[in-house]
Amino acid sequence: MFKRCRFQKWIGSRALAVRTVPAVLAISAALSGCAVGNVGTLVAQVQQRGNVSELSVYSVGLHLRNRADDPGAHLGVSRRTYFFLADGLLAPGWYLLRAPLAPVEAMAQDLMTVGIDFTTAAPEAGLSLGYTHTRLLARVPLDASVLIEYGADLRVEKFTVLKQESTCAIP
Question: What pTM was estimated for this model as a whole?
Fold first, then answer.
């Protein structure tokens, strides 16, 4: 008597339920992830490149960041890469559910977030929604200059910090 419309057939399909239930569960699990500082639902990779230790931290879900050089929080997916001027500062390798802590501030950063990002320090203090990608090329003391050498893959390979004899002043 009554004819089923296309929408009812689509909703009632078992094939759709079989496909969507795992996807919904995976998205829910990813969004419910949580990390505080260097512990939680995150994966970290440490690489040695010349005199530079490169720490890449991948996180999913809510991540409360308490590093002095990158304070804030984000909800979503992120990759945060920190470059340290210290040969052998961190042991190379992959780390699951915890990231190794470096006792010094990063000399450079490459920060990418998809989601909501709340940053509480310069250079981008504020709230961002969507895709954010920030590269802070050098964090150098006021009385120094830095020479950064990049490799063929455009990754930082070497830092050379040059101390100045006296501070520069513009009259």
Answer: 0.71
